[in-house]
Amino acid sequence: MQDLRISLVQSSIHWHEIGANLAMYEEKIWGLKGKTDVVLLPEMFQTGFSNKNTTLAEPMNFTTFKWMKQMALHTDAAVVGSFMVKEEGLVFNRLIWMQPNGEWKKYDKRHLFRMADEHNHFDFGTERLIVEWKGWKICPMVCYDLRFPVWSRNRNLEYDVLLNVANWPAVRVNAWDALLKARAIENVSYSVGLNRVGIDGNGIEYNGHSGVYSPKGETLAYSEKEEIITLSLSKADLDDFRAKFPAHLDADEFEIQ
Question: Which of 41, 102, 152, 173 yields a CA-CA distance of 20 to 30 A from 144?
Fold first, then answer.
């Protein structure tokens, strides 16, 4: 039962400057080679959260996608983050899970943040993603998805870790803290949330609060400053708690249409 080393890159983001952000993140994560299994980057990590999709969205296999492939190969870790992708006339807030061998998977954000008009600029995702990595099952989601427990419900222990990458403003950060912990407890899994810091081009402030929570709701990591947090998640502890407290056996059966 291998522990999972995960690195949360909590950072400010250069507004709409793709090249500057890729260079910044490359410098930050270059030294993680051999020290981690998963590198988490924020939502829209190379632009900041923006609806300027007509000019900033990239096709697949373009600059950002290729950069993620290079970073995964260098760090020998899965590199995970979301950015704007245009595909067949549609535009998605798309999370990419990139592995060192070049294999990758995608998750398109399902819940688009209507209070910022995201739903009028992006297309909705329709499928969850669960990735198997290093003996773990991992379910990645994006920002506003965190508010919808049915979408993230861990039916029959389908996953061990719920990930959320975000641009979650400081004004609503209390909800972020509470929901991350709630998702861990109700899904009997680890819950990992990565937010950004700084002020974006719309004048919106972000204060981090990136965190990692155990299935018991314990805070394993937490930060409000610009830094990289690396810690190990214990599979033995997870399996032991699930055996002693099998709440999943009493969960309600349902299907998402």
Answer: 102
